[in-house]
Amino acid sequence: MQDSAALNDMRLRVREALSRVPVTDIHTHVYAPAFGDMLLWGIDELLNHHYLIAETLRWADVTPAEFWEMDRRQQADLVWKTLFLDHSPVSAAAEGLLEVLRALGLDTASRDLESYRAFFAAQTPEGIVDRVFECAGLESLVMTNDPFDDTERAVWESGPQIDSRFHAALRLDSLILAWETNYPRLRDWGYDVEGPLGGRTIPEVRRFLHHWIDRMEPLYLMLSLSPSWRFPDGSQLNRLLEECMLAVAAERGLPVALMPGCRRQVNPDLRLAGDSVGVSDLASLERLLARYPKLRFLVTVLSRENQYELNVVARKFPNLMTFGCWWFLNIPYLIDEMTRMRVELLGFSHIPHHSDVRVVEQVIPKWTHARLFTEVVLAERYAAVEETGWKVSDAEIERDCRDLMGRNFWRFIGRL
Ligand code: FIX
Ligand code: ZN
Questions:
Q1: CATH tag, 4-37+137-412
Q2: Residues whose Cβ atom is located within 5 A of ion ligand 2
Q3: Which of 195, 284, 285, 301 could cross-link 306 (Cys pair, CB 3.0–4.6 Å)?
Q4: Residue 151 vs residues 39, 45, 50, 71, 390: alpha-carbon distances, Å
Q5: What does the longest C-alpha to C-alpha distance in the chain come to?
Q6: Best probe residue, ligand 1, of 262, 271, 330, 355 (max atoms within 8 Å of C-beta)
Q7: CA distance 231 to 244
């Protein structure tokens, strides 16, 4: 049994260390200010986050179709009324929004949505970004960048000056998962490709990838995978994965981020909120890791049931770096469980948190929770270590925290 005074003291030491270490958020869906309206911020965007929309549509007396007919402000009003006034905002997503308001100095007790709107109306995107980076203790973040998104592609093609705290990640779901829909667009852009991957298709897709790597300078290439993904299986998907994505990653010395476990659009009426979860086949992941020992894979898996197995896979393959508590896993209950399991199975050789935020202010609650559970778990583990007579210094605690909150990522991707 751990002595509670010793544990409290250790919590203070870890908290202190965590307050000093810079955070890198390795996967988000926010954009730098140079991307204009693609950077989501402000109270109406916070209320219209798809996590809250899914919760609202469980109560509200409107159909999804009626909801999408409303304008952004009416939608936000409905989310506010349903989740904050008609019921108490206890879900992780709803409470997180209140943490944003509090951190920005707004009075949550007033429940005055119009005063929150007035506050945000007086801000600029650059000002909000600076403020939330400061509040969240964030040094840099990684965006999710899709060349098939017309608005985004136009920005990249205009040669934007991107805030150096925002890094790119080249997302390939549109290319690989939606090949049948999107290969004609490659043809429109001058690539000599064919639907069944014949002729010059593979070298031409590689040429497309090189072009976008040159343009975006991404830190990694990225793909989500359905739970039904199996490897190897000779499928078109795996050919695009191996012969294009992994081949180019190897040529360019880039790591690959894989995200298995998402079942897209189980309820398309909910749009972005309509995706679900399923248990993935991690033996397939093992076979991939074994086939490509020189490639580095960042992996997060969506189902809770896969987490223990994923840690065991990480023990077998140093070319695997697990990261974050993805999406539905990003609730206090599971962040606590997952961080504990990872630290006990892997020590410090993992990346415990990423935020996945879509609205920039959301980094505040995400990183508050990330730090809190890192503190709770590490304090217990350090206290257990010290009970043996071993002593950990403050400098060692800070070193370990720096690794978890940023340095493991930069080292793994070869940029440290
Ligand atoms: O595929 C992904 O990167 C997911 O994180 C998102 O698409 C998802 O909609 C999300 O916002 C989860 O947090
Ligand atoms: Zn994401």
A1: 3.20.20.140
A2: 356
A3: 301
A4: 12, 18, 20, 20, 56
A5: 70
A6: 262
A7: 15
**Regions of the chain where pLDDT drops below 70:** 1-2
- The β-bridge relationship of strands 221-225 and 170-171 is parallel
b/e map 96-110, b = 16+ CB within 10 Å:
bbebbbebbebeeee
Q: Kindly tell me the burial class for residue 215, based on how many C-beta atoms sit within 10 Å of its own C-beta (0-12, 13-18, 19 or more).
A: middle
3-class secondary-structure state, position 170: strand
pLDDT digits (tens, 9 = 90+) for 358-377: 999 999 999 999 999 999 99
As a whole number of angstroms, the distance between CA 258 and CA 250 comes to 15
Summary mean pLDDT of the chain: 98
C-alpha–C-alpha distance, residues 406 and 321, integer Å = 13
Cis ω for the linkage preceding 232 (within 30 of 0): yes
CB 321 within 8 A of CB 296: yes
Q: What is the 113 CA–ligand 1 centroid distance (Å)?
A: 27
Question: 259: closest CA among 183, 182, 172, 373?
Answer: 172
pLDDT at residue 159 in the model: 97
Which of 324, 382, 385 minimizes the C-alpha distance to 350? 324
pLDDT at residue 3, rounded to an integer: 84
* Ligand 1 neighbours by CB, cut-off 6 Å: 29, 224, 259, 262, 272, 327, 356, 358
| pTM score of the predicted model | 0.98
Task: Compute the distance between CA of residue 207 and CA of residue 213 in angstroms, rounded to an integer.
Answer: 10
- CA distance to 16, 81, 171, 185, per residue, from 112 (Å): 35, 11, 39, 47
Ranges of each domain in the chain = 4-37+137-412, 42-122
Distance CA 356, CA 287 (A): 27
- Which string of DSSP letters, residue by residue, matches 105-140? T--GGG--HHHHHHHHHT--HHHHHHHHHHHHTEEE
CA distance 326 to 322: 11
3-class DSSP state of 38: helix
Q: Which helix (H) or strand (E) holds 263?
A: strand 262-263
Strand ranges, E, within 22-101: 23-25
Query: C-alpha distances in angstroms, 118 versus 123, 273, 363, 382?
Result: 9, 28, 21, 46
Third-level CATH fold of 42-122? uronate isomerase, domain 2, chain A (1.10.2020)
Q: Which two tokens stand for residue 283?
A: 């033996």
* For ligand 1, atom 8: residue with the closest CA: 327
